[in-house]
From TrEMBL:
<protein>
    <submittedName>
        <fullName>DUF6339 family protein</fullName>
    </submittedName>
</protein>
<dbReference type="Pfam" id="PF19866">
    <property type="entry name" value="DUF6339"/>
</dbReference>
<dbReference type="InterPro" id="IPR045920">
    <property type="entry name" value="DUF6339"/>
</dbReference>
<keyword id="KW-0614">Plasmid</keyword>
Length: 252
């Protein structure tokens, strides 16, 4: 099976006419989707073969977000970074081949008629970088790509599971907003440090992730972080978090 994507004209129309079309998303009007996307020139076939991800539809997102990051990245890890950065690819998948997942993950927002979230989940309306971690499908691939540890052959998703365990949606945005976490080596180093602390009983929350990014921005002004390996980054971040928060283990 080949991935389908939307044409440039279709993307422009879907965005320009979103206020007109949004009622069909909110009501899950399958007849409208069928009629719109059967129009000539709306849908294009890529040369990218893929097997459909085995998505989890478990409403407990603390579990299913991890499962679905893994499912998406397992299915599409052959995408290049350039391909995975294309808005038309993710818009096409959200409207066509993966609309079942879109409707599942956005169910609460659709039921509440959250129009702002509807638009940001479908289109790249938050800038080219941030949107990769806001779009409801793109973020699955990108979190998988950024956290996958090919050096751990027994469990390459060990950092992914830790990252997805709590507040996946918010964490994806605020953690990857840092310029330095765009580097996979740095990202892995940060997550190794935070997971180590978490495993010791220090519950890692938003403030710890934000502080890690803030500290990288400070240190990055004085040294070239890209020359450090993940273990060096991990030691730096662990020391910083211990100093800044003086964390104490959670009582059992």
């Amino acid at each position: 099976m080949k991935i389908q994507y939307v044409s440039e004209n279709a993307l422009h129309d879907l965005l320009a006419q979103h206020d007109k079309y949004k009622e069909h998303y909110l009501s899950r009007n399958e007849d409208w989707f069928k009629a719109y996307f059967e129009q000539e020139g709306v849908v294009l076939d890529s040369n990218i073969e893929y097997v459909h991800p085995n998505f989890s539809f478990n409403p407990n997102f603390s579990a299913s977000d991890y499962d679905n990051v893994k499912a998406m990245y397992d299915a599409l890890n052959h995408l290049t970074v350039a391909q995975a950065s294309q808005e038309r690819l993710w818009v096409g998948l959200a409207h066509l081949q993966m609309r079942d997942y879109f409707n599942f993950r956005l169910k609460d927002d659709l039921d509440k008629k959250n129009e702002k979230r509807l638009k940001s989940a479908l289109f790249f309306v938050n800038g080219s970088k941030r949107s990769l971690f806001v779009h409801v499908l793109a973020r699955l691939w990108w979190v998988g790509y950024m956290t996958y540890d090919e050096n751990n052959t027994d469990d390459p998703y060990w950092l992914t599971k830790f990252f997805c365990a709590r507040e996946f949606s918010g964490r994806s945005v605020y953690f990857f907003s840092s310029n330095f976490t765009a580097n996979r080596m740095i990202t892995k180093g940060v997550l190794i440090a935070l997971k180590k602390l978490d495993d010791e009983g220090f519950e890692m929350k938003r403030a710890h992730f934000v502080e890690a990014g803030r500290y990288l921005n400070i240190v990055g002004g004085a040294m070239i972080l890209d020359i450090l390996d993940e273990n060096e980054i991990a030691r730096m971040i662990e020391a910083r978090i211990r100093k800044a928060f003086k964390p104490t283990p959670i009582s059992v």
